[in-house]
Amino acid sequence: MKLTKEIKTALVVILGILTFLWGFDFLKGKSLFNKEKVIYTVYDEIEGLVNGAKVSINGLSVGKITQIDFLPGSTKILVTMSIRNNLSFTNKSEAMLYETGLIGGKAISIIPDFSTSIPVKSGDTLVAITKPGLTELLNQQIAPLQQKITSTLTSVDSLFAGVSNVLNKDSQTNLKNTLALVSETAKNANMATNSIATLLSENEQSLANSFANIENTSSNLSQITDSLSGVNIKRVIEEYESIAMNMNKLLEALNQEEGTAGKLLKNDSLYKNLNHTVEELGQLITDLKENPKRYVHFSLFGKKNEPYTNSTTKDK
Length: 316
Prior knowledge:
By secondary structure, the protein is of the alpha/beta class. Among the domains are: 1-33; 35-136, no CATH class; 268-311, no CATH class. The protein has helices at 5-27, 134-166, 169-202, 204-230, 233-255, 259-266, 269-290, 292-295, 311-315; strands spanning 36-43, 54-57, 60-70, 77-84, 94-99, 106-111, 127-130. The model has no long low-confidence stretch (mean pLDDT 80).
């Protein structure tokens, strides 16, 4: 049987198409001669994941994403993966969604589990996990910082508003006057400091002498203190107490009219006698003045003296 040119051409075309398909799948890591497993996983959100994205284990490509669609009756995303048939991990393995680079794009990395000898089979569903990307990490770090910055800006705005309300024209004038007074006070304090420094410099020798005198005084006081410390203070106090007791006894005796001194102090008879004696002495002197011949008399003929008569009686 002869093959016509049309049949040969059709065969060549079909062979070319098959070769193209084989080469295309080979470049994607898929072989036409190897049967593949179809497994699933479910995510809440898959921003950046597209059909044909790589499925890998430890960085080695083992399959690809064949379909992405909603899970029937839900808003979750069902991801269908086609992987090599010779893989022996179990259906307890995890399918981790991660970012492939800084410019975006996502892929799935399978974290294999070999806890059992039953390998995953077509139709199994892997546990879905998501690895935060650089963008998400930055957003997680920036979000609290943004809140703090916003709060700080709000506080600063309130502060400036309060300052604006407080620092009106009158307040600004008062503040300027206060600052001027503070500046003047600082100048005066500086001048006073300079004056004190000059005074100390001019009287340095006098101050030195004064401090020397103070030192000598302190030394003398120390010696006096040492001398006092050597005195038997207790004995002196006991002697003073004895003297005080004797004085108390003496005063008690005087108050009780014991002895001559007590009678002199408490009895007025001596005063009366002295007063009477003084009166009589006065009368005697008066009579002596009035009648001197009575007391000084020379008689050649033996004339008798006149009897004494109290002048006060005569006057009466």
